[in-house]
Design brief:
With about 240 residues, this protein is an alpha/beta fold. It is built from eight helices and nine strands. Helix 1 (about 1-10) packs across helix 8 and helix 4 packs parallel to helix 8.
């Protein structure tokens, strides 16, 4: 742990990739674990854009259960530690696969949501964008939220079959290329193109993976931890202090 802590101290630029495992301690279940959302076959295609276009009620039935978890969630110690490192002078850039805004609420300034964010929604017909919280009553009443033009609102998150937000993606790639240390936290590294981000790292950069399950890049990492993310970051932070 001391070597890991020393590496953080010596790194002027830190790039972080976070996945669903980052937010499980905040009460948001992940998707691919044994007890994750995808363990329920009803949720298997919930984020498929083709399925949404055919019948948005399928997604909104899921959102009725999922949305309250997102809006009620609070940053956990791992979110706060990354924000604290930034406040202490480390240049921390975070590419996140998560659609919550927990990194931002913890205080991190350079956060790139490569799968979009649930905070806003856009009309599929006219493009009007609004805060998703304004649609909350319709969602929780089991209705499909609609625009004044009668178009269906879709959350501004990237469904399978859609392109990633270009700005967030390009900024994330640049962060990986410039970082001296790459942290991969709570992602199985199986969903592409997000999983390819660590491949863009500088050849001299060190890489740390913290995930409860194995990942395809474990053999390339300098350190691999199969522990809780908050526990690992809290331990290394204590050594740094």
């Amino acid at each position: 742990m001391k070597e890991f802590a020393d590496c953080i101290r010596q790194s002027r630029r830190l790039a972080v990739l976070t996945g669903a495992g980052m937010s499980t301690a905040s009460g948001i279940p992940d998707f691919r674990s044994v007890d994750g959302f995808y363990s329920d076959q009803r949720n298997a295609n919930v984020f498929e854009i083709d399925a949404f276009e055919r019948d948005p009620s399928f997604y909104y039935a899921f959102a009725r259960r999922f949305y309250p978890l997102v809006i009620q969630a609070q940053p956990n110690p791992a979110h706060r530690i990354l924000a604290d490192w930034e406040q202490r002078g480390c240049d921390v850039e975070i590419a996140t696969q998560n659609i919550d805004d927990l990194h931002q609420r913890a205080g991190s300034k350079k956060v790139y949501p490569i799968h979009g964010a649930m905070e806003t929604s856009s009309c599929r017909r006219c493009g009007h964008r609004c805060k998703t919280r304004l649609l909350e009553t319709q969602i929780m009443d089991g209705k499909i939220p609609r625009c004044t033009c009668s178009g269906v609102y879709k959350p501004d998150i990237t469904f399978f079959g859609e392109a990633l937000p270009e700005d967030a993606w390009m900024t994330s790639v640049a962060a990986m290329k410039q970082a001296e240390l790459v942290l991969v936290l709570g992602t199985s590294l199986v969903v592409y193109p997000a999983a390819s981000l660590p491949l863009h790292r500088n050849p001299t950069a060190k890489m740390v993976i913290v995930n409860r399950d194995e990942t395809p890049m474990d053999d390339e990492a300098d350190w691999v931890f199969r522990q809780d993310i908050s526990e690992v970051l809290s331990s290394v932070d204590a050594v740094m202090k």
